[in-house]
Amino acid sequence: MLDYIWLIPAFPAIGFLLNGFLGKRYPKSVVGWVACSALGLSFLTSILVFFELLGMAPAERHFEKVIFDWVVSGSFQTVIGYQIDPLSILMALVVSGVSFFIHIYSVGYMHDDPGYPRYFTYLNLFVFMMLNLVLANNFLLMFVGWEGVGLCSYLLIGFWFEKDSAANAGKKAFVVNRVGDFGFLLGMFLLFTSLGKHGIWTLHFSEVFANAHLLDPTTVTAITLLFFVGACGKSAQIPLYVWLPDAMEGPTPVSSLIHAATMVTAGVYMIARCNVLYSMAPVSMMIVAIVGVATALYTASIGICQNDIKKVLAYSTISQLGYMFLGVGVGAFSAGIFHLMTHAFFKGLLFLGAGSVMHALSGELDMRKMGGLRKKTPVTFWTFFFATMAIAGIPGLSGFFSKDEILWQAFSSPHGYWLLWAVAALAAGMTAFYMFRALFMTFWGECRAEEHVKHHIHESPKIMTFPLMILAVLSVIGGYIGVPHVLGGANHIHEFLAPVLGGGAEPAKAHAAVALLSQAWASGGEGGASSATLEYVLMAVSVAIAFIGIGMAYLFYVKNPALPKSAAEKLNGLYRLVFNKYYVDEIYQLLFINSLKNLGTGLWRGFDEFIIDGTVNGIAYLFGWLSNAMRRMQTGLVQNYAFSMVIGGVILAGYYVVRAIFY
Amino acid sequence: MWVVPTIPPALYLMLSGVLFTIGVIGALTRRNAIVVFMCIELMLNAVNLTFITLSHFLRSMDGVIFAFFVMAVAAAEAAVGLAIFVLIYRSRETINVDEINLLKW
Q1: DSSP structure string for A345-368
Q2: Which of A80, A127, A129, A338 could bond A148 through an S-S bridge, CB–CB 3.0 to 4.6 Å?
Q3: In this complex, which of A632, A634, A642 lies closest to B28 when CB atoms are compared?
Q4: pTM of the model
């Protein structure tokens, strides 16, 4: 079976080609059928490979399949090849599985859209690229996938390109991602050349990581930071997060698949994949953790004040991605990947639920015009409810286990620090608040929709509710593969990923900054028993924070609906600041976009139009002027021509005569 | 038999030069295309005279052959040229060269 891992990305590629070239020829049902079965087969293959991998000894769970040589140049060569190890198969399972259910959902959701075949073509292409990203066995092929998902993201955000806002959002996503991709590319170049100095010209994962010890710490830090720039772009972290909220212009299943479950987690995957490099660069790890936790808190605060349901979810996604980066940043790579997986379930579900709500309310996005949908759309409500509980960190659901793992690691790992934990816990409380706010505003209270919308509120068709239910089940039980030891679990996912990601956070290297950070904690870090007690205490604290957040949401939006308004009025300045997303878009507009625009305009007017065009046109004008002067010689009178001939003859003859006389 | 007085070659060549110059001046100054044409013929024949003279005095047949070529070309040219004049006259009712000046800037 392992020999056939190339089938995992091949099925979506076939679906893409079929729908892309023939999609308009055959009926809609066939398009949906082709796309879904491509994903289904891909998912099935992943499952089979997964079980085969489980049957092997943990140390042997690594397999590479080379399809063909791609670049062969001197001593450097790169192949199109796929690799299976616990990390990549887990990612492949999440990607193909969640994609499969979202494809099914899309069949219902996009049913009346004229761009139906185009939609599924892009979606299949996206999954193909994403699978390339996670299954690649070298950086170059990973980069192809990396760019490919960016392209598909652009195409799908701007899917309704007739709308200006959608087209602009797509463009914004693409441009911001380019900034990150540039960093990733530079990191790759630096890695390539600095390994090349030691005679190892390779971008192959296993060779790079086996030889990583040859690199000096400064270089590794630079490489990992450049990679992190790429991750910031793709995974929407500060300062490159601005594209993700706008990306909500795309169809809702796209937001669910690309901008919640899969593509945006590529950065986390990449860092986990490069864990060998990151473990060598404590400074980079610290920066990753700090950026992650800052993003988590910052975007959670924005999420509180948003009224657009998809925007709330978008900011929530960025915030959760921040948690994942916090996890990998403190060296808890498996915790980050674990949260990535559970997040794919519950956030994918939340977006699909939001899509179902929009479906019921004729496309309404504003939560102030929702409410009271609990009875009318029960399936959507219950699934949304479970997903909200999962993301808020209610004990027993998937989000609790993964988030708590990260919080615990942020506190206790050698790279951790109590402040990281405190900020992350605060953000967790805010998460609980804004998610339950969304839940209450959408499903509780009176229906505030307009009359004509109210009449045909209805539950979505079965084809849409079925994926909701599946994902809800996964959101509830998904966490049980990673129950921590203190709760009597076995933490299977941690063990499963251990061959790739290491047994846990490595002991801190002697580095001043890290030493400083962990100093505060070092005094408290005693032995096993007290550590377990501490873990219980922290767990209880984070659960308490979550419940406080939920309680406040209940107080604000169910008990006393007038409260939010008065609170907003009391904190007018702060509210306005947060409501307008801290004016970051405006600041970026001012700082980067305008200055670049001015530079561009300056170059256009000054250099392009003046110098380049000036040179070209100047030469043309010069010869125009010259020939204008010269053409007067053509008088049309034969005798003038004859006369000039005579003059020429005389001069010629004169020359020879003079020469004959004088020389 | 009378003896043909020997005329030195310089005289032949001078005659040729004078004829050529007359031809040039005529070709440049006369307005009537026929006259211009005749002047050109004059120039050709002046050149022919030079050829014959030098051929005779250098005892080489090359010049004679060239003279024949020039005559043949001149005859052909006369045929074409006169045909052109006839056509120009038909369309413009003049063969004054200073009025035939449409082919210009």
Answers
A1: HHHHHHHHHHHHHHHHTTT--BGG
A2: A129
A3: A642
A4: 0.79
